[in-house]
Amino acid sequence: MSTDLITELKPTKSAPLYGFWYPATTSTALAVGQMQTQVMLGQPILVCRDRQGKVAAMRDICPHRGMPLSFGHFDGERVECAYHGWQFDTGGRCRHIPALVEGSPLQPEKIGITSYPCQDQDGYVWVFLPDPQQPKQPVPELPRLPLPSEPYRMIQISTILDCTIDDGIVGLMDPAHGPFVHQSSWWRTKASMHDKAKTFEPIPNGFRMVPHAPSKNSGPYKLLNRLYGGPLTTTIDFVLPNQRFEFVQCGSMYVSSRATVTPVGEQQCRIDFAAAWNILPWLPFAKPLFRYFANIFMKQDKQAMERQAVGLKYKPALMLIDDADTPAKWYYKLKAAHLAAVQTGRPLDHPLKDRVTLRWRS
């Protein structure tokens, strides 16, 4: 595929996308009767789990004097502010104001905090953050991790990145950094680089690297091929606003993973990685081993993106060149197309119109 050389790409402020689901915390980190605060898209969000195990989310600010509710107490039914004891149910409705005298005309139940749709799925507590420009937007279905069969094992790991959301996402989808950022004797080395050709196709709000034989210079893929006899295929999806899915399959055996990059503030975001698999059911300590190697990868990506952020703070012009950088171009165009569709009310003009084959060395 021929692409025009971009010699200068002026950096722009990484604006987060509203109107999507974002992971707030892991399901296991939020026990029954507990609450937890998170900053998501620059907004303080309080998530809690009531006595029946149902999760809920609301703005973590008391409307009285601005005290974060997370400094208060949650009894499994109501959140009580630590400053003046105002109480709110899990829907954000005020239920009690201790300072009110009997006969006061003020009705506490008419006072409320912004609440958000909240779901427990795939080991995470998810919060839907609506787009102020789309007040009538229906809440979309939460994208699920592909899990073709049970039983399976699952892990979740997270880390904070000191970089913008766009830089984090572009780093997440970059296809050519592996032999340099993730080089090792058991994964890939510079000497193992070779020509690759991958076909991509458009999907709703994203694009897909269609099923293909995984990289022949990756040790774990070679091992799976030997164990299960192939054919081994990999499918990789990117879906707005921040999700990268990878599905590796060999017959009925699979490894399904999802990585998300959630903005915390303008210069900070959080990577959440979840993986589920039914391969190697006989292997002892499979979860600790998978977690160990996944943490190595995440730390390597974290170091690379935070080092890049040191240079990006000087706002240099960037060069996105040839096919290896085309997915990054698609992301920026896809994000711009989504924002344009929200503003105009027209269907999203997808930047990828049909199947395209990209070639690079990695």
Structure explained in plain terms:
By secondary structure, this protein is of the alpha+beta class. The protein folds into 2 domains: 30-119, Rieske Iron-sulfur Protein; 153-361, Alpha-Beta Complex (Naphthalene 1,2-dioxygenase Alpha Subunit, Chain A, domain 1). Helices cover 19% and strands 34% of the residues. The protein has helices at 165-173, 178-181, 219-228, 286-312, 326-344; strands at 6-9, 20-26, 35-40, 43-49, 55-59, 73-74, 78-80, 87-89, 94-96, 115-116, 118-121, 124-129, 153-161, 195-203, 206-212, 233-239, 243-250, 253-265, 268-277, 318-320, 356-361. The strands form 5 sheets. Strands 13-19-18-17-16-15-14-21 form an 8-stranded antiparallel β-sheet. Strands 3-4-5-10 form a 4-stranded antiparallel β-sheet, with no helix packed on it. A 4-stranded antiparallel β-sheet has the order 6-7-8-9, with no helix packed on it. A hairpin with a 2-residue loop joins β3 and β4 (43-49). The two termini are 17 Å apart.
Strand-helix topology:
Layout: E1 6-9, E2 20-26, E3 35-40, E4 43-49, E5 55-59, E6 73-74, E7 78-80, E8 87-89, E9 94-96, E10 115-116, E11 118-121, E12 124-129, E13 153-161, H1 165-173, H2 178-181, E14 195-203, E15 206-212, H3 219-228, E16 233-239, E17 243-250, E18 253-265, E19 268-277, H4 286-312, E20 318-320, H5 326-344, E21 356-361
Antiparallel strand pairs: 1-20, 2-12, 3-4, 4-5, 5-10, 6-7, 7-8, 8-9, 11-12, 13-19, 14-15, 14-21, 15-16, 16-17, 17-18, 18-19
